[in-house]
Structure formats: C-alpha cells, structure tokens
Amino acid sequence: MKSEIPKILNKKFGRATINKDSKKFFIHLLLTIPVILFLVFYSPVLKAQDAKNKELKVKTSAVCGMCKETIETALAFEKGIKKSNLDVKSQIITILYNSKKTSPEKIRVAISNTGYDADELAASPKAYNKLSACCKKDNPIHEE
Ligand SMILES: [Cu+2]
C-alpha cells in the first residue's frame, strides 16, 4: 500500500505536466501560425513593392531651407512620389518613387515647375520669377 501512493502522485503529476505542456504547445502554435502565414503571403507583396519603388537623385538649384520646403512640399503632392529629401549643401534631392506611377522625366518636370533646375532641365521661367529673392539661383547657398 505504501508504495502505491507515490505511483498515484506520479500519475497525477505526470498528467498535469502533459496538460500544461500541450496547452503551451497549442498557444505556441496559435502564435506561430499567423507569423508563418504573414511571412509566406506578405513577403512576395513586400518584394513586389520594393521592385516598384525606385530612388532618384536630382541636382537642383536650391539655395536655402525655404527652397527645400518649396520643392519637397510640391513633390509630396505629385503622383507616385513617396518621399523626397533635399540636401541644401549639395543641392541634391533624393526621391523615392513608384516607377509604375511616375518617371524620372516627370519628376524633373515637376521640380522645374516649382522654379528650380532639375539636372539638365532648366527651371520654368514663370515659376522661377515667383520665387522670393533669397531663393534665386544666383544667391550663394545659405542657411534659412
Ligand atoms: Cu530658398
């Protein structure tokens, strides 16, 4: 009789641990499945988006922070442009765009239409004349 007590305890304890383990396993599975599904179904989508997104660098005639504002704001409203960042010191604007919705040519035209040169494309004279005096391209590159 004495030796049967540990056996019963063992059985109960054993079952308890199995239940705990299978619960843990089940929860683990529930958490893991969505992650796997996400990776399987979304990675091709993410890759496809990466293929569409391209980077373009354009040399502009921007000379100050106001120029940067003007160009970046105008480009934010352009179709297919996701991001743009102008470095005033180098006058180079880096643009992330969707190559299915726009093209480097269209982007350069958009920049020209804000009054700034875009690589070989000269600024639209009409827009250039509207720029404030500090933003004219004969100014040296300056702060603010
Ligand atoms: Cu300016």
Question: Structural class of the helix and strand makeup?
Answer: alpha+beta
Alpha carbon gyration radius = 31 Å
Mean pLDDT: 87
State the order of secondary-structure elements, H for helix, E for strand. HEHEEHH
- Cα shape: elongated
Could you give the order of strands across the largest sheet?
1-3-2
What amount of the residues lies in strands?
Answer: 5-15%
Secondary structure: helix percent: 40-55%
State the major sheet: 3 strands, antiparallel
Low-confidence parts: none
Number of helices: 4
Beta strand count: 3
Q: What is the CATH architecture annotation of one domain?
A: 2-Layer Sandwich
Reported by name, the CATH topology of one domain is Alpha-Beta Plaits
For the record, give the distance between the C-alpha atoms at the N and C termini, rounded to a whole number: 92 Å
CATH class of one domain: Alpha Beta
The ligands found in this model are: copper (II) ion
Question: What do you see in this structure?
Answer:
This protein is of the alpha+beta class. It has a domain at 53-135: Alpha-Beta Plaits (2-Layer Sandwich), CATH 3.30.70.100. Helix content is 53%, strand content 15%. The chain has four helices and three strands, in the order αβαββαα. The chain has a three-stranded antiparallel beta sheet with strand order 1-3-2. The longest helix is centred in the first third of the chain and has 49 residues, at 4-52. Bound molecules: copper (II) ion. Copper (II) ion binds at residues 63-64, 66-67, 134-135.
